[in-house]
Amino acid sequence: MGANVPMKIAETPTKKFYKIWEMACFGGFLTGREAAKYLVPRKKGTIIFTGATASLRGAAGFGAFASAKSGLRAVAQSLAREIMPQGVHVAHVVIDAAVDTEFVRQILPQMKPNRQTDDIVKPDSIAEFYYQIHLQSPDAWTFESDLRPWCEKW
Predict the structure, then answer these.
(1) How many other CB atoms are there within 10 angstroms of residue 101's CB atom?
(2) Which residues, including other chains, have CB under 8 Å from residue 21's CB and lie 6 or more apart?
(3) 44-67: string of b/e by CB count within 10 Å (b at 16+)?
(4) Domains of the chain, earliest start first
(5) Among 35, 81, 101, 148, whose CB has the most other CB atoms within 10 angstroms?
(6) pLDDT digits (tens, 9 = 90+) for 103-121
(7) CA dist., res. 44 & res. 112, Å (int)
(8) pTM for this entry
């Protein structure tokens, strides 16, 4: 869930907005910058940023989160254009679903009382997808992709 906390923009305290941006966007900038410093001299490696549906569109009540995730996507795009020509693969993956974590399992009965098999994304499935991105040949690098379970509404 990260910083995906519902708050109307008019009711969002400045400090809360900043903290959400700091965690979901600025943290990605710092991580990408430091990884690039290490990987560019080696002329190889992969940096994958994790996005959310909010990376692509804002939703009512989620202005802070949407601005942070769309900002992270823009950081990833800029970094990709800067360092992919130097041999470092940069990707942004939109995860359009709940991820199977302890927290999500606790709140899921209220969110989805009529659950179905494989209706949330498993961390192992995400890891496998990220590993496949890492293995891609430079002649066919993915920048952006999305993951969702079979039943997620687009």
Answers:
(1) 12
(2) 64, 67, 68, 71
(3) ebbbbbbbbbbbeebeeebbbbbb
(4) 9-147 (3.40.50.720)
(5) 35
(6) 888 877 766 667 777 888 9
(7) 42
(8) 0.89
